[in-house]
Amino acid sequence: MNKIKDVILKKYIDLRLKLFPPDKEARNFPQLIREIKNILVLLPAQSAWEDDFQRFTSDLYKVFPEASISTFERRSFRKSDGNWMGLPSDAYMSQFTEVQFDLVIDLTPESDRLSTYICALSGAPLRMRLSEGGLSHIYNLHVRTDPQKPQKEKLKSITEQLRVFKKGTHPQ
């Protein structure tokens, strides 16, 4: 029964995300980034990189000292937080939409559809991901890095790019 439910859930999420309209609005990214007050970081379930993610959050606070930074880990998503299909319930999703996040940074693997779903429905004007993939139309910022780089370097690339956007200039 669980396998059937998982297949239905995957197909439903894929359909919902494909129907999510691509962001065609012109945006002034440096201005939006300078105005960031609320950030949501979607973390992968792999605790092996926990120190890297804590350092990343600390670095984000250095770039955005006035911002409130929240994190979401899939392993913290309880069965009671979802509906019968395993998707976040409306009440659970309202936690993300009520905060009015300015930026969502998705650090989960490309195959994590739950995090992509949360990102898509968060209402955040800026949605960032480390790599492009099949659902890249959900995101409007991509930080391209060498896939062979260690996770710590990839996370540093994100904070450096955000710092550059915030300043509005390229580093020399």
TrEMBL record:
Entry-linked InterPro entries: DUF6913
Stated name of the protein: Uncharacterized protein
Organism placement in taxonomy: Bacteria, Pseudomonadati, Calditrichota, Calditrichia, Calditrichales
